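Protein modeling request. Please complete all fields; requests missing the sequence field cannot be processed.
Requester role: graduate student
Desired output: 3D structure, token encoding
Chains: 1
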Amino acid sequence: MSFPPIDEQLRVIRRGVVDLIGEEELVERLRESAQTGRPLRVKLGIDPSSPDIHVGHTVPLRKLRDFQRLGHRVIVLWGTATAMVGDPTGKNKTRPQLTREQVDANKATYRAQVGAVLDVDAAEQRENSEWFDGMTFMDAVKLSASYTVAQILERDSFLERYRAGQPISIHEFLYPLMQGYDSVELQADVELGGTDQLFNLMVGRELQKQHGQRPQVCITTPIIEGLDGVQKMSKSLGNAIGVSDPPSQMFGKCMSIPDPLMEKYFTFLTDAPEAEVRALLGGHPRTAKVALARSIVTGYHGVAAAEAAVAEFDRMFREGGLPDEIPEVAIPAEELRDGAILLANALAQGGLCGSSSEGRRLLKGGGVRVDGAKVDDERATLGPGSYLLQSGKRKAVRVRIG
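Delivered output (402 residues):
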């Protein structure tokens, strides 16, 4: 098997990467691949911990796709065992444990959404329950002996919780070891993950050494901010662009991306060449944002759907006579109940109607759009985040909640 020149591979691999641990080792393995025709084994673990993914989740997936396009063997490791434990990354409390039934249901929807980015059928797909389900308790004890408590506490999230006196369950300490052991079973040459996964990836290097394997190269990609421009993208925070969002809604959300984030979104969520991105960002912000939104929607829904979304957006905002400058209204977190606010209330506070009851009538009448998508549910709610609300053809406001 032949591969592109090593310099070209490195250019593709380095794009948008935060950490590249073992770069010299990567170069050496790429040389070996060129000489032997053996592709690298490149692993990305995915825990099906919820039913849907957003475009922020696709950043490491796109890097995995880069390796696939370069001719290497990519491995989608479904964390059907680790998802039942729960990765404690970024959490200040123990995650609730999922059942196998919940994990399997989530995996079914995940796979279809992952397929929008990666050629899943051409990838090696594995489940880590293959080896963990067959382990005995004493096998788990042996695995836990691979690391010390002091080493595990080097992970920032554990150390912060320990110092704050917050409880840490023993099973949480096992998660990095489980992820690391996955690399041993798969004999991974490279493992990908977000920057929050670096500790777990490094555990994989150590466990491979202990098992007499060459340690994997560790590559991390950034965790991008959501539409509020502040917090990381999260559906629970209401600042996410969902992979399964309809084209018009996805386009509308992309058009609300804060200007300072456009370069990051171009780099991590599109294949646009760097020179093209620089040229777009050097021009009018609206032109750049339309190009960004078109590119993202095309990636998930195709060219025709993207062009239809552009046309609909133009019709709503240009033919509808809406101004380029749309007023913004902040709704403080104190207004939220159970982490959300009724859309009818947001319409009233945004000045699109006189009261929440009038907002409910607008919704019932079908004249309300949120980020370009029609909403007619009187009970609809909005979580923290940034939204473009429209009532009729000529009234719009951007609300920032929380």
